[in-house]
Specification:
Elements (H helix, E strand, L loop, with lengths): L1 E5 L24 H4 L1 H9 L4 E4 L17 H10 L5 E6 L6 H14 L4 E5 L5 H6 L7 H20 L3 E4 L4 E5 L11 E3 L4 H10 L2 E4 L4 H18 L4 E5 L3 E2 L3 H12 L4 H9 L28 E2 L1 H14 L1 E5 L5 H6 L1 H5 L1
Parallel strand pairs: 1-2, 1-12, 2-3, 3-4, 4-7, 7-8, 8-9, 9-12, 10-11
Antiparallel strand pairs: 5-6
């Protein structure tokens, strides 16, 4: 199974707990001590992909924490890694796809062909408003993302490319130097609009955590949609592992965390997602313990229990585990089996 983790660009907590305090970013001088050692540790663990989030505003309380700029940090990571693939999350609306195509082609060369893109249609309205970006209705955000991917692929695949869309235009666009590798497009979401976009244009879907039944349903819907497009979509599941010596020990820790949930804070988070499916939309308390509903995947328990559950997700069609690297016992007992 391929593996992916968050890039070290966020320095505030994400749990919905009454004890959370607002964090802060290290200054520029601290990047070498706060970021680069973590980056080296991630690559040493054998993780195959690094996801660099675009989160330009977040309080770390009612909204997940802000992060350092996705483009600048991808360039930094390219210069300080040798093997791991770099997946940059980009919100259409914040950037023109032709400019990202040029930037991405440069990253492709800088990284030795290790760059991919995660096109994220967005759900945090306040973030869009702060930067003066038109948020659009849910369906329109996905229509904008579709055009964004069209321009990226056209610029990547054709020596000269023109495009006339509702949201984006390009005139005889030429990328020079040309990209050295094919473009791989990731996306998130699990709504009908997200599934339609994936079936028509994307290579991978990042799925939020959830039960086997929920994940199996989403994968089934995507595969059904792909029958009409003739394409294949691969699946990455986000899960937050909590591995302890026994199942009872792991679940006791989870219950303690659930007891710390601030209900008013949880409701403010849910209200901020503006139509997104996932991102704390579930009624299940496990989904509130971290961003992207990671604990709802239930990689919770002894090493044997967690490995069996991973095998069940693999049987459904999950080909990549997206996780954080904070759980030491998971890293020691299960991750080596995944990375080979």
């Amino acid at each position: 199974m391929l593996t992916c983790t968050w890039a070290p660009t966020v320095f505030t907590g994400s749990q919905v707990a009454a004890t959370i305090r607002r964090g802060g970013f290290p200054d520029g001088r601290a990047l070498e001590t706060a970021v680069l050692p973590m980056l080296a540790r991630i690559e040493a663990l054998g993780v195959s992909h690094l996801l660099i989030a675009q989160r330009w505003w977040g309080s770390g309380l009612e909204m997940e924490g802000s992060s350092l700029d996705c483009l600048a940090m991808t360039a930094l990571f390219a210069a300080h890694t040798e093997r791991i693939r770099l997946v940059t999350a980009v919100h259409p609306g914040f950037f023109h796809p032709a400019a990202i195509a040029k930037w991405g082609a440069t990253l492709d060369w800088i990284s030795g062909g290790r760059w991919d893109i995660n096109v994220t249609s967005g759900w945090n309205r306040r973030e869009f408003d702060m930067y003066g970006i038109d948020f659009l209705a849910h369906k329109e955000r996905y229509a904008r993302s579709a055009e964004f991917i069209d321009v990226l692929r056209g610029a990547w695949d054709k020596p000269r490319f023109s495009y006339e869309g509702r949201f984006y235009q390009a005139r005889d666009l030429e990328l020079e130097p040309r990209p050295s590798t094919p473009l791989t497009v990731f996306q998130g979401g699990q709504s009908d609009d997200a599934i339609a976009l994936a079936a028509a244009r994307s290579d991978w879907m990042f799925l939020n955590g959830g039960t086997l039944e929920r994940i199996g349903d989403i994968i089934g819907r995507v595969r059904k949609a792909c029958r009409s497009t003739g394409r294949k979509v691969r699946f990455a599941l986000y899960a937050a592992p909590l591995v302890r010596r026994t199942d009872a020990e792991a679940w006791a820790e989870i219950q303690a965390r659930l007891g710390m949930i601030d209900r008013s804070l949880a409701e403010r988070r849910r209200a901020a997602t503006d139509g997104a499916h996932g991102m704390w939309a579930s009624d299940e308390d496990l989904s509130l313990l971290d961003t992207n509903e990671g604990y709802a995947a239930r990689l919770i328990g002894s090493p044997d229990t967690v490995y069996e559950r991973l095998e069940a997700y693999r049987a459904l069609g999950v080909e990549m585990l997206h996780f954080d690297v904070q759980d030491q016992l998971f890293n020691e007992s299960i991750l080596p089996e995944l990375v080979g």
